[in-house]
Amino acid sequence: MQLGRKGWNNVIIFSMLIMIFFLNGWHKQLFNSADEPSVQPVLPIQSFVLTLTFVDQKIERIGTSWRTTMLQKDAPFIWQASEQQLSDLINQWQSAQLMGVNESVVFNPNAPLYVATFELAGESLPWIYLLYKGDGQYYLLEKSSQRILALDLKTAQQLFPSFDFSQSESN
């Protein structure tokens, strides 16, 4: 079977496409090391938050605004927030970019300091974030993917305003 000029052109075009595909894949594997920690968004990009629940309060979207409901009446540290502060808190979570941690970090996985649970539009399961402290650093564990993100005290205080960090600093 002999190929005509049109057939050979098609063979050359498809072989070039296949070669480009493989070279592009190798390029990404060679220069993107999976072992390097990278900055990652905490929540999925373009996520739409419906509720944010802490241990002591629930923040929920009501139309275009936010409201909070206290879950524990006897909480030792109660964060009283205006509607603008609630909106700012949700925006901080949505825009937070933290450094991923690949190596094993030292913290007790059975003793989280605090928990934040998100219900996102289009997601059937909640996103659960556990706050830990270890090696003088704070860590955020995303429960479903077991992704660990490092954060400093200031960022931790911004993301968890209802948690009393003075308790954890003394430990």
Characterization of the model:
By secondary structure, this protein is of the alpha+beta class. The chain folds into two domains: 1-32; 39-170, no CATH class. 31% of the residues lie in helices and 29% in strands. Strand 6 (114-120) and strand 7 form a beta hairpin. The longest helix has 27 residues, at 5-31. The protein starts with a helix and ends with a helix.
Strand order of the largest sheet: 1-5-9-8-7-6-2-3-4
- Work out the count of structural domains: 2
The main β sheet shows up as: 9 strands, antiparallel
Uncertain residue ranges:
none
Protein name: Orphan protein
Keywords: Membrane, Transmembrane, Transmembrane helix
Transmembrane segments: 7-26
In short:
This protein has 171 residues and is an alpha+beta fold. It is built from four helices and nine strands.
Indicate the topology.
Elements (H helix, E strand, L loop, with lengths): L4 H27 L7 E3 L7 E5 L3 E6 L2 E6 L12 H13 L1 E4 L13 E7 L6 E8 L2 E6 L4 E5 L1 H7 L5 H6 L1
Antiparallel strand pairs: 1-5, 2-3, 2-6, 3-4, 5-9, 6-7, 7-8, 8-9
List its traits.
alpha+beta, 2 domains, 9-stranded antiparallel β-sheet, 31% helix, elongated
